[in-house]
Recover the amino acids of this structure.
């Protein structure tokens, strides 16, 4: 299974980086960027899910 | 004056981002993940290992004069595996090749102490190689990982700022 990387940024500085999605929980000072959140929201919409 | 002791005084941290590699901030470094208890002392390598040698004698020279070329950095280490997901930080963070970030090394102070302004640190911008499972040898389960150090984001004499 491929490793899913997400765009993150440092909450204090706004500097962007990338982390494996499964590793995000180990970095509480980092959060997905707004663009990453938007991508995740699009993927999660019902019409994009396989029936 | 006293010599620095090494036991328990090596702190290795991974952070996904830094704003200034020569002057990382306390907040940025303490937001990273400490690796010194997740990595084996055996086969640990992090830092400059030398440089290329350029043969560059003058036309009139009777000897093969040489000059230092590009610096060579190496970073390779073996990480322990853990049965609890919250402890298996290295395995989940360095999950694939091509993951970027920074390795920070501090020596001479208790590894449990947080970074503070004024700490001397070495900063290495890295990209992960492919994680390699190690054959069982009777000890702890580990995986080996080589990092590719990027010279443009590396400063072995950086200073932590507030």
């Amino acid at each position: 299974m491929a490793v899913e990387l997400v765009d993150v940024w440092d909450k204090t500085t706004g500097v962007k980086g990338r982390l494996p999605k499964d590793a995000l929980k180990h970095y509480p000072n980092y959060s997905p960027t707004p663009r990453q959140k938007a991508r995740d929201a699009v993927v999660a919409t019902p019409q994009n899910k396989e029936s | 004056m006293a010599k620095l002791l090494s036991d328990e005084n090596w702190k290795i941290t991974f952070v996904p981002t830094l704003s200034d590699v020569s002057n990382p901030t306390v907040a940025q470094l303490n937001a990273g993940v400490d690796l010194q208890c997740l990595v084996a002392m055996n086969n640990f390598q992090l830092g400059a290992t030398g440089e290329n040698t350029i043969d560059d004698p003058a036309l009139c020279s009777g000897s093969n004069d040489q000059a230092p070329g590009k610096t060579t950095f190496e970073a390779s280490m073996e990480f322990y595996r853990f049965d609890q997901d919250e402890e298996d930080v290295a395995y989940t963070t360095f999950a694939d090749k091509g993951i970027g970030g920074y390795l920070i090394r501090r020596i001479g102070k208790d590894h449990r102490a947080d970074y503070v302004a004024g700490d001397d640190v070495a900063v290495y911008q890295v990209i992960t190689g492919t994680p390699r499972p190690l054959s069982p040898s009777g000890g702890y389960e580990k995986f080996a990982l080589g990092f590719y150090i990027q010279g443009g984001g590396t400063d072995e004499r950086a200073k932590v700022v507030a």
Summary: Chain A touches chain B at residues 2-3, 5, 8-10, 12-13, 15-20, 22-23, 25-30 (CB under 8 Å).
